[in-house]
Every structure is written in C-alpha cells, then in structure tokens.
C-alpha cells in the first residue's frame, strides 16, 4: 500500500503530507501528474480522507480502476481508511456513492499478487464491520477462501491477534482446521506471533463420551490442554528436525 516513502516529493513536503493538509493541487507541480494523482488518490483512501479522494475522482474518473504494484485495487486502501477514520458507516457511504454495485462486487472478489482478496485484508486489521458489509454486499463469498499459501481470513486475523475479527469469523462458520502449505492452522499463527490470549478460541473442541463422569472429563481436558501447550511450544523446524 502507498506510504510516505514511495510517494514523489515536492520541496520539503511529500505528497502524503499535502494530503494530510488537504492541499489537492500538489500534482500540478509534478513531472508526471498522472502517476502522482494515482498515488495521491490511493494515499487519500489509505488515510480515510474521503473528501480529498472524491475531489481526485471528480477530476479523473479513471482513478477508480487504479491498482498498485502488488495488484491491490482501491478497496484495499479504502479498507485501511476505514480503520484510520474509525467510521465504517461514512466509509461505506462514500464507496456506494462513487462506485456502481457491480464494480464493488468485482473488486471484492479480485485477488492481489498473493492471491488475497479484500476479505483477507480487512480480517488482518480486525475490521469485522467491513467484513459484515462485504458479506452483505457479496453473500456468495466463501469465508474460507485461501490465498496462494493456503491462508484463510481466519489465519490472517489469528496472525495479528484480532479477536473481534476471529469471533466474527467463527460465528460465520470459518474453519479452524484448514492447513496452510506450511502445515499451519490458525491456532499455530497465534502462537508464532505471540498472541496467546486468543489461542483458546481456535483450538478444536473435544467431544467426550456421555458416560464419562464430569470430574473425569475436566481432568482429561486439563491434561489435553497442557499437552497442547507443550506441543505448540515447539516450532515447525524443531518438529521436522525430530522426524529426520
């Protein structure tokens, strides 16, 4: 996504800094104003500067189709803008005012160079309100869709410790047992990235036989949980080394 480091400069201010000041004429002094307007439009979306983004779009309607070098369309930047502005309602209103429904649906399902969609991106930053909006807009969406590495939105949310997104995904039948090409389930992602506080939500349940006494079930569950903690404390590399 666009950052200050990859935006062109003009004097002492970067394009991003001009966006922050709502100065929209920055591109007029650039050697390549078309490229600069693309970058600033994405940057305005990234920071949730909806009025600035609308003004750029008014001047050049083709900006709606812009993608970055990672093949991420404008919705990836818009999603971060939702987080920055902390107002999902205004963000979705802006989107619906400036994009036809068919194009929104097309972009929701479009993958970037990693095979990820907008759904992966918003799960990673914990924007469960936007995830709900995506499902409302695109009800046929598969919440268990994977990228090129086999990661689901649940893997992404788990990797970043996004509990609210994790709970939303679980409520919408996200599969905790899907394994990536590296052999990791979402629970492994939480451990690798030290988000231990959410790991209990991602462990598969155990269905004890009905005839077992409750005290025995509690004892066995405690032993199982301890065994899981020990198992997960070893990295994949250590596990593979033992097999050799």
Automatic annotation (TrEMBL):
PANTHER family cross-referenced by the UniProt entry: ANKYRIN REPEAT AND PROTEIN KINASE DOMAIN-CONTAINING PROTEIN, ANKYRIN REPEAT-CONTAINING PROTEIN-RELATED
Tagged with keyword DNA repair: no
Entries under Pfam families matching the protein: Ank_2
InterPro entries: Ankyrin_rpt, Ankyrin_rpt-contain_sf
SMART domains: ANK
Protein name (Swiss-Prot/TrEMBL): Cyclin-dependent kinase inhibitor 2D-like protein
Keyword set, alphabetical order: ANK repeat, Repeat
């Amino acid at each position: 996504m666009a950052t200050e480091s990859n935006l062109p400069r003009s004097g002492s201010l970067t394009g991003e800094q001009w966006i922050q000041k709502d100065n929209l004429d920055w591109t007029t002094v650039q050697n390549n104003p078309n490229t600069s307007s693309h970058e600033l439009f994405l940057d305005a979306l990234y920071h949730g500067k909806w009025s600035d983004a609308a003004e750029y779009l008014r001047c050049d309607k083709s900006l709606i189709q812009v993608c970055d070098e990672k093949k991420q369309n404008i919705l990836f930047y818009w999603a971060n803008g939702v987080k920055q502005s902390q107002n999902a309602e205004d963000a979705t209103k802006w989107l619906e005012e400036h994009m036809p429904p068919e194009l929104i649906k097309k972009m929701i399902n479009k993958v970037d160079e990693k095979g990820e969609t907008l759904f992966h991106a918003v799960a990673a930053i914990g924007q469960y309100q936007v995830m709900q909006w995506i499902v409302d807009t695109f009800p046929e969406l598969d919440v268990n869709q994977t990228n090129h590495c086999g990661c689901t939105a649940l893997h992404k949310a788990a990797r970043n410790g996004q509990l609210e997104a994790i709970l939303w995904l679980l409520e919408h039948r996200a599969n905790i047992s899907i394994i990536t090409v590296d052999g990791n389930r979402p629970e492994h992602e939480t451990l690798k990235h030290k988000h231990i506080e959410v790991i209990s939500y991602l462990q598969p349940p155990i269905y004890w036989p009905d005839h077992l006494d409750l005290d025995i079930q509690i004892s066995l569950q405690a032993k199982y949980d301890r065994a899981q903690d020990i198992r997960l404390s070893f990295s994949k590399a250590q596990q593979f080394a033992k097999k050799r």
